[in-house]
Amino acid sequence: MALSAEEVTLYTQRLTEAESALHELNLGRAARTYVDQNGERVEYTVANRGALRTYIAELKALLGKKTVLGPMTVGML
Fold first, then answer.
1. Could you give the angle at the alpha carbon of 62 between the alpha carbons of 24 and 67, nearest 5°?
2. How far apart are CA 40 and CA 20, in angstroms?
């Protein structure tokens, strides 16, 4: 089943966000606490790297992009 243009746009956006999140996580810059404009504090846990890598691979598969997951890519994703 081919993806619609809207689905391609959505999955591409999600892939970009997920890759950015993994990058920030790898750099140790992933925020754990957020204070909004009303001063409300929201805390969240950092996503599991393995789950995030799997999600990225799933999005790439949906978009028809090649994904290689194995011993050679463990530190690269």
1. 60
2. 25
> What are the residue boundaries of the structural domains of the chain, listed by start?
5-62
Within the chain, residue ranges assigned H as helices are 5-26, 49-62
Q: What dotted CATH number matches 5-62?
A: 3.30.1580
Q: How far apart are CA 74 and CA 37, in angstroms?
A: 38
Tens-digit pLDDT profile for residues 2-53:
899 999 999 999 999 889 888 887 787 776 666 777 788 766 566 577 888 8
pTM > 0.90: yes or no: no
Cα separation, 39 vs 71, whole angstroms: 45
What is the DSSP secondary structure assignment for residue 46, as one 8-state letter? P
